Amino acid sequence: MATAEAAAYRPARRTASERIVGFIRKSPVHLALLLVAFVWLVPTVGLLVTSLREPADITGSSWWTSLLDWRYTLNNYDVVLDRGNMASSFVNSIIITIPATILPLTIAALAAYAFSWINFPFRDTLFLVFVALMIVPIQMALVPLLRLFRDFGIANGFGGIWLAHTAFGLPLGIFLLRNFFITLPRDLIEAARVDGASNLKIFMRVVVPLSVPALASYAIFQFLWVWNDLLMALIFVQDSDKWPMTIRVNQLQSEFGITWHLLSSGAFLLMAVPLIVFFALQRYFVQGLLAGSVK
Amino acid sequence: MSSTAVPGPVGRPRGRRLRDFSARSWVQGLLFIAPAVVFLGLLVIYPLVYTIVLSFADTNAKLKIVDWVGFENYTTLFTEDKAFLDLDSFPPTGAFVNNLKWVVLYTSLSLALGLLIAVLAARVRYESLLKAIVFIPMAISATAVAIIWKFVYDPDPDIGSLNALITLFGGEAQAWYGREDLVNYALIWAYIWASTGFAMVVLSAALKGISEEVIEAARTDGASEWDIFRRIQLPLLSLPISVVTVWLLVNVIKVFDIIYVLTGGGPGGASEVIAFSMYDETFTNGEAGYGATVAVVMLLLIIPIMAFNIRRFRSERVTE
Hints:
The complex is a heterodimer of chains A (295) and B (320).
Chain A: H1 2-9, H2 16-25, H3 27-51, H4 55-60, H5 75-82, H6 86-97, H7 99-117, H8 123-132, H9 142-152, H10 159-181, H11 186-194, H12 199-210, H13 212-228, H14 231-236, H15 245-256, H16 260-294
Helix pairs in contact in A: 3-16, 5-16, 6-13, 6-15, 7-10, 7-13, 8-10, 10-13, 11-12, 13-16, 15-16
Chain B: H1 23-54, E1 57-59, E2 65-68, H2 72-80, H3 95-121, H4 127-139, H5 142-152, H6 161-168, H7 183-208, H8 212-220, H9 225-236, H10 238-253, H11 257-262, H12 274-284, H13 288-319
Antiparallel strand pairs in B: 1-2
Helix pairs in contact in B: 3-7, 3-10, 4-7, 5-7, 7-10, 10-13, 12-13
């Protein structure tokens, strides 16, 4: 009887004809979404297809004509990796990004642990001050940091950009991680404490293993942020041998003019890592985004 | 929990325990936050103060202070610097005015499109695929977005997709980023394209939080789809909408990379914005004091937005 009621309440499984009617009634929605998919896919696909065409073909005919006349090549990638210096700047991007992700992750996690589970005076005030620093635009620090790095003697290496990205990534990291750490069960932390575990041990053995999703979200965020950054690299990476891919792609324009076979393949090399990260770790990425914005 | 706690003064209320600082936890707390304090103090707070000081100074080419000028940089910026703000021409022009266009168009359209796509996509089976397509540009760099759209906007209809489409329907090809009257809109659209995914993902997650039963009940009572959106979904979305708006506003005040790569501020400085003025004055013209003034203006524009955000954050906490 209860099932009969439920069946009456819930819409019954639809027949084929009902489905077609439903589809047609929804057709304005489908059309609108088709347009959305078109507008969001075509620009990227166009550039991808272009990156696979011969330079002479690119300037001779629209990119979609090649979809019928199937002759693609990876030559442009060869050229841009070698002559466009994208291979060495790919390595630079990695050298810049990995420490600039691990360093803030570690420092933010330590601070977030203290803000969640250690009692000390002015704790909440300090936390608010740290988080409030999120509002400081990097423009407020470019010149003083540049002078500071020159004084430290690290203006020519990777040191400056590592430090700058670490400092400016911390407020968000502390905010995200602290918000996650305080949701861990209090009993667990207290029990470890009663057993005589030190704070460092509780942090390493209890908090970090339980917080992998939050740590991953922030790490991905920071990684993509650093990888995709142009402005800070322009200022803090002075030596052209150490330029990351963002600067290099832009530099292709001034070096070779608007040559689409180089620009398109260069841009795709720049996008490759973020796209892989995005598709492999989409869940963490979206979780982090929602935690950072909604909470 | 309280029965197993370490023996202490009887009847101590639980909330008070936070105020109990043993000397050990003092030191340990400080040790844990020490690296963050050093980094934030030396590399964020000190530069922040330094830049504010710098905005009241004249500097030489080595970015060193040579003279104190009071508020002169500020008055010059808003009254004499035609590249920053020109109120004599009609309509007003300059980087500040351009940035206002960005604020209005980018924020409202990213939000509206994100909301629209979130609401529509919730009604179809291929929702997750569609959302992934719209969200992808969020993962890639503004540099790549700039190249993608520079290609779409290319003036040659054999290359640029937009002009190809227009000439296909008998229209005339345009130099989208080469014309002073079009360049800002072309750039703003490219950045909306890149950011709509953010608004969509946050709003879509919030929509999923609204009880399906409420919506079904309204539907049974004969409410139209528009009524459901307007009277049920929209009011319940007001908090995430304000969160997204704040994020978009802060983002648009800092916009730089996409313009730097797509137009370099051109043609003739027509697409410069505030962050661009800061970069140009400081690093192209070597005027660090004047550039610092522009940076302080950016900060002053961001502060009220964030203050609003924190107030909302607090009030939400109270009702929680």
